[in-house]
Write a structure and sequence with these properties.
The longest helix is centred in the last third of the chain and has 20 residues. With 249 residues, the chain is mostly helical. The strands form 2 sheets. It has a 3-stranded antiparallel β-sheet with strand order 1-2-3. Among the domains are: 57 residues, no CATH class; 115 residues, Poly(a)-polymerase, middle domain (Orthogonal Bundle). It contains 9 helices and 6 strands; from the N terminus they run H-E-E-E-E-H-E-H-E-H-H-H-H-H-H. This is Putative nucleotidyltransferase MAB21L1.
Length: 249
Amino acid sequence: SLWVEFITASGYLSARKIRSRFQTLVAQAVDKCSYRDVVKMVADTSEVKLRIRDRYVVQITPAFKCTGIWPRSAAHWPLPHIPWPGPNRVAEVKAEGFNLLSKECHSLAGKQSSAESDAWVLQFAEAENRLQMGGCRKKCLSILKTLRDRHLELPGQPLNNYHMKTLVSYECEKHPRESDWDESCLGDRLNGILLQLISCLQCRRCPHYFLPNLDLFQGKPHSALENAAKQTWRLAREILTNPKSLEKL
């Protein structure tokens, strides 16, 4: 009975209604707390965002952790003809489960139906982290994130760190042996991922690793993707031609 007000006419738990109540509760807490002079709620959004000392913005997202179950929309994974990650790791990843987040879907902004705003966002953070354990995978991702932060923070925000994380998972499928992820192979893996990123940017499509029907470039301006492809090619060319490039990049 406590959940009745958050249930849709179809009998589903509404992400939008949960977020709305959560926003009200956080606003009340901010108003009553002793830090209300330095913490302000960000207006004009259904997300719960706090601006702290006019310098930092913190977003708090309501979520359900779904451990030990795997969504039907990702049931095709792992693909039967690919030897990575192996049955034991697959079992570990699926045991991590997934999270359901109450978030605005920016790619549908301005044209969301109430049904879409009631829907929850699937997130696989723990499963992806489990998948990318071992070898130089984490180091590879860390370098890619740094390259993105320093060189690919572009107008239109075409790339974020999640694109990098996704492409590392695809690279793991292409190079399934653990020896492919030895420290000595780090340069090859970086080059492979950057070239794959260029291909995705030029095709204007980057499939989610677990939900390949979901395009992570959806809603991104084509001009921003083209600009990102050019910038990524400059990075890749520098790394391919200069053995000491990462020291200065």
